[in-house]
Amino acid sequence: MTLQIADLNELIETIDGLLARKDLVALTEQLTPLTTSDIVDVLERLNLRERAIIHRLLSKDRALEVFEMLPPALQSDLLTGLQDADVSTLFAELDPDDRLWLLDEVPAVLAARLLRGLPEKERLLTAGLLGYKQGSVGRRMTPEFVTTHIGMTAAESIDRVRARLKDAETVYTIPVLDDSRHVAGVVSLRDLLGEDPDALVETFMQPVYTAEATDEAEKVARMCTDLRLLALPIVDSESRLLGMLTIDDAVRILEHEESEDAARQGGSEPLNRPYLSTPVVTLVRSRVVWLLVLAVGATLTVQVLSAFEATLAEVTVLALFVPLLIGTGGNTGNQAATTVTRSLALGDVRPRDILLVLSRELRTGALLGMLLGLIGFGIAGIVFSPEIGLVIGLTLLAICTVAAAVGGAMPLVARAIHVDPAVFSNPFITTFVDATGLIIYFVIAHAILHL
């Protein structure tokens, strides 16, 4: 059973004390009854040196299980604290596709050394995956799988599965190949076990979905999960089988991409590691660039305010509503951007749908603006004057309409120019809506208040 948070915190305090006293015997006794996931939770809360000590105290099999469950960033950290022999063993025991996750994290010098230390067969399998570009599903597929042939029987196919049980990453979905190594269909292990042993595979194989190795990993992972597939055959441009994307790797890809999008929509870079094991310097580095970008963008807002300084001096009450208006505009734009970015990831919309999205967001923004504008008109009209209420109401209507349209369009524009929508949308929306919203505000104020 996995430890509860309170029990885990108490265990961490005990382990910290034992590490401080260098009582390795007692420390081993503490680790022995823990599950693999509990040990991973512990390691995620320790520093690099302590993590290496704990890992060395584990049995060989347990150490490998724990290492495989760690995020790639922590795997990279751990390698720097282990002896060369330990590093080579752990790296060699990983599946080829899992090695790619780790190699993407470690420095190039260490990556080359790790590859050189692999047995020749494993090195060739891993190097084959490295040949695909970053972000492609070719880097995430496993080259260790079982196949059968259209001319084989169910019994012969089961024998092939038995022969590959130790080294194949997946045996539950089995591609059926023709003489040219094209994927003709798939059979499941359940199908093989349930059919007559002498039945030819081609008589009961199922239609197959495939993806090309050069396709975007996130897109293929989404396809795999949407179709509820345990594994998806990955082929070359001529439909010859190259590997398999398993469901656990598909989920891992989606988790990684969604964590990245969530971080960037919140104005920071993804950590790619548990929060408590992330150095403060890394936290600062992940946020400072975005803060600088937004600070530079805010200078445009300052310029707009300075241009209407005389208006603010004449009707000082207008200044009270500036935070409300630009905040509402930014929130409206970010809501639209988040919705459309998510729809892009799911394949619900494409860049060519920009006019349809604009139409929907203009109407959505206008309705939101009317609702908020009526509330703003009522409150400001009662507290200050009907004219001020009218300025606030009309400004909210205009800002919400513009912000929703811009927020909905930006992710589609970003995807069209091959930029991450999560990176492009929010800083642009914040800067654009703040400055544009103030211009709209003061133009409406000038017209209604005759300034």
TrEMBL record:
Keywords, in A-Z order? CBS domain, Cell membrane, Magnesium, Membrane, Metal-binding, Transmembrane, Transmembrane helix, Transport
Per UniProt, residues of the CBS domain are 141-203, 204-260
Where does it live in the cell?
Cell membrane; Membrane
Kindly give the SMART domains that the UniProt entry links to this protein: CBS, MgtE_N
- Lineage: superkingdom: Bacteria
Q: Where are the transmembrane segments?
A: 288-308, 365-384, 390-414, 426-449
Principal localization reads: membrane
PROSITE patterns per the UniProt record, alphabetical: CBS
**Molecular function terms from GO:** magnesium ion transmembrane transporter activity; metal ion binding
Q: Which GO terms describe its cellular component?
A: plasma membrane
* Membrane topology per record: Multi-pass membrane protein
Q: Name one Pfam family in it.
A: MgtE_N
Q: Mind telling me which SUPFAM superfamilies this protein's record contains?
A: CBS-domain pair (SSF54631), MgtE membrane domain-like (SSF161093), MgtE N-terminal domain-like (SSF158791)
| Complex and partners | Homodimer.
So what family is this one in? Belongs to the SLC41A transporter family.
Described purpose of this protein according to its UniProt entry: Acts as a magnesium transporter.
The name on file for this protein is Magnesium transporter MgtE
Record gene name = mgtE
